[in-house]
Amino acid sequence: MSTFQEIKAAIDKQMEAFEAFKQTNDERLKAVGDGNEAKAKELGEKLIRIEADVQKFGEIKKQLDVEMTLNRERLEELESRAKSPGKTAEQKRADEYKDCFFAWMRNKGQSPHDEAKLHEIQKKRIEAKDITIGSPSGGGFAVPEEIAREIERLELKFSPVRRLVKVVRAGSSDYKELVNIRGATSGWVGESGSRTATSTPQLREVAPTHGELYAYPQASEWSLDDMFFNVDAWLAEEVAQEFAIQEGDAVIRGNGTSKPTGMLNTTPTTAADFASPLRAAAAYQFIPCLSDDSPAVAEILPDCLIDLIYTLNSAYRSGANFTMNSVTTGAIRKLKDADGQYLWQPGLQAGQPDRLLGYMVETWEQMDDIATNNFPVAFGNFRRGYVLADRVGLRITRDNVTNVGFVRFYVRRREGGIVLNNDAIKWLRTTIA
Asked: DSSP class of residue 87?
């Protein structure tokens, strides 16, 4: 469990590393300006090592922040339960289901009694209309609600996707969203002037494309026999890590075939908001930016980032943030404004994220690198720009036949995704000179 002292220590180390980073980068830029290539190369290599420390301590701080948030949520949940110690019939069934579920996981398929009991309890819960269980027709068993919640919590630790975009619970794959694309018109008129009819608002319907996201963790039979082996923690972490990686990639570039339709599946265009004709519903706007690996990047890229911010409508800038991967972060961290001030500032308090030009920065590893015609940076209000629709419930099936000595668990969740409002996020497209 992380503490404020640990977070403070990580912040202090990050700040020390960042100060060393700035000093070394200033010396490198001076050496480049003086034409001292040997010294510039030496300082560049030193800068890479220091940058690794900045990145490491920043990630440590971020992980500690997430852990504190998760611990606070668990504490609030325990306090809520303590205030209502009496259990309902459904809560008792849920506890019974969880105990039977872990017995089923450990018995490696040798006891049909546990499976029969799971079916019986699950049937009672469905009859009680507990929607977290879902339908038994898909095979396997529902993952207990506590484990499903822990998987979702850990997904936030491994990926920013679910804390950035809009996430909804959908009872069927027919879920749709309506987006107002500002089709209404208005006008001016005098007291006795005639009023002509104005256009009604135009609504755009968006429907997520769905697929089944799955993980296939396996544990040895020996570990499952070990009474000290924490089955629920192992399952939650293994599944969450795989889900976070796959989901992060699908939301960026999923092709909509048995998976979400990603943000970049329809290539962004230069067409502005409300241009005539309107951009395709799934096409965002991009800002072109010329970039290269020379010092000129420090003169060009800051202007691109500023253009990116102010191309976004002010209605979406509240709650907006930057996203990029670690490689792009390393390049942008070197940038300065016209007054020689670094654009990047690390968070100085617990829970405070790093900022770029005053806006939060999220590291999303599945984003593009800086390269010709790539989209390495996005800026916007992601909650208004993209929607993930979860079908209720995680399901699990056990396989103790395929790999002798090991038990594999097939865990899956049906979900979909689609661009929600293509005005709410802008992208930077780089071209290497």
From this structure: P
Burial class, 316, CB count within 10 angstroms (exposed 0-12 / middle 13-18 / buried 19+) = buried
Report pLDDT for 267. Answer: 95
Query: Is residue 288 classed as helix, strand or coil in its secondary structure?
Result: strand
> Residue 243: how many CA atoms within 13 Å on its side-chain side?
30
Question: pLDDT tens-digit profile of 202-234?
Answer: 677 888 999 999 999 988 888 888 878 888 888
How would you class 16 by CB atoms within 10 Å of its CB: exposed for 0-12, middle for 13-18, buried for 19 or more?
Answer: middle
Locate 302 and state its tokens. Answer: 């800051």
Cα(247)–Cα(164) distance, rounded to whole angstroms? 13
Q: Distance between CA atoms of 189 and 171, rounded to whole angstroms?
A: 48
pLDDT of residue 138: 47
- What are the tokens at 116? 């029969």
First-to-final CA distance of the chain: 48
C-beta of residue 391 within 8 angstroms of C-beta of residue 209 = no
Tokens of 155: 């997904």
Spacing of C-alpha 431 from chain mean position: 26
Only one residue has tokens 């990686």, namely 245
Residue 63 · residue 55 · CB < 8 Å: no
What is the C-alpha to C-alpha distance for residues 177 and 282, in angstroms, rounded to an integer? Answer: 13
User: Contact at 8 Å (CB) between 144 and 104?
Assistant: no
Low-confidence ranges of the chain (pLDDT < 50): 1, 127-138, 295-296
- With a CB cutoff of 8 Å and minimum separation 6, the contacts of 32 are 40, 295
- Backbone phi, then psi, for 258, in 5-degree steps? 55, 30
pLDDT at 291: 63
Collapsed DSSP state (helix, strand, coil) of residue 263: coil
- Paired with 344 in beta bridges are 356
Of 209, 260, 223, 216, the closest CA to residue 238 belongs to 216
pLDDT, tens digit, 9 for 90 and up, residues 118-164: 767 666 555 444 433 334 434 678 888 888 888 888 888 888 899 89
Q: What is the pLDDT of residue 259?
A: 93
Cis peptide before 268 (omega within 30 of 0): no
pTM of the model: 0.75
- State the greatest distance between any 2 C-alpha atoms of the chain, in Å, as a whole number: 88
